[in-house]
Amino acid sequence: MPESMEQYVNTFESILSKATASIEVDYIQLPMHGREDPIYRERVYCYELYHQLRVAWPSDFPFSLGGEVDKNGHPLFREEHLLKTKPDLLVHQPGNMDGNLIVLEVKPVNARSSEIVKDLSTLTAFRRSANYTSAIYLIYGNSERSFSRLKNIAESTEQPGSVDLRTIKLYWHSQHHEPATRFEWSVASA
Question: Does the residue 190 lie in any domain?
């Protein structure tokens, strides 16, 4: 990876740290009328994360932030494993395939196994076939037990060709007003 791209990835990870530390508790778990316990709503969290990233975004950072960019019809996204994929966030230079910096997927700690596998496959595909420099899997929610379960599911799904954890960085945003923390995979490292 060229040194400048690695520096840009590091810059983004600092922005991500600042942004996640700015997220309020109601965006991590949404209070709901008629329920005692709040619930996880991925879209609510992602929209607030997008907002906080934009607030922290340096004016001289040469990449843009896109939310759920639809790649349908893109001539380079016709491969089976890229069709109909819409990662939660992209950090890129639109129109410049050499400016694809980071692809990011987000899931709550209570995600289902099928959702985890789908996200990891998408992240792997964007790294391998869409020229993204880095991939981040961001898990949010305050249950250490659920985070461990999710991490174990992810590590057990690594499959040559579809899921390569060596190309994906794992972050956990466990508490509001705290930055997301990077964790290493037990089976590989990005």
Answer: no
What total of structural domains would you count in the chain?
1
- For residue 19, give both structure tokens: 């942004």
138 phi and psi, to 5 degrees?
Answer: -105, 115
Report whether 24 contacts 55 (CB < 8 A): no
Cα 20 to chain centroid, rounded: 12
The per-residue pLDDT for range 62-94, each reduced to its tens digit, is: 999 998 765 555 556 555 556 567 799 999 998
In a domain, 163, yes or no: yes
Residue 95 counted as domain residue: yes
Handedness of CA 115, 117, 123, 128 (dihedral sign): negative
3-state secondary structure of 59: coil
Percent of the chain with pLDDT over 90: 68
